[in-house]
Amino acid sequence: MARKIFVNLPVKDLPVAKEFFEKLGFSINPDFSDENAGCVVISDTIHVMLLTETLYRTFTPKDITDTATSGETILCLSADSREEVDRLVEIALDSGGKPIGETQEAEAMYGRAFQDPDGHHWEVMYMDMSAG
């Protein structure tokens, strides 16, 4: 059985966050979504739970990271080509995301990064395994 991962992220405005990820081409699983949560389906084994800050606080006693001033994590998505990296990042930027850093380019690797509307750091990376 393939192991699944559910990444939980606090969001300030759930409808805005859900729309952002839908514009990137991901679906929202209604079975795990309500007025306090949205389940973004990245793949069969990867899901991102967008949780209102109120709901998120019920899972941890820790403060929610202020993503304007601090990094909490870097989430990296694979892409099938350099063009897909550019396409996803451009959609993210056109949909309310903000760029982070410079394009990363090496012999076998190409990547770009953005912040989602809540300031979470995302990277999209293509690895050319044949260049190795």
Automatic annotation (TrEMBL):
This is VOC family protein. It holds the Pfam family Glyoxalase. InterPro entries: Glyas_Bleomycin-R_OHBP_Dase, Glyas_Fos-R_dOase_dom, VOC_core. Residues 3-127 form the VOC domain.
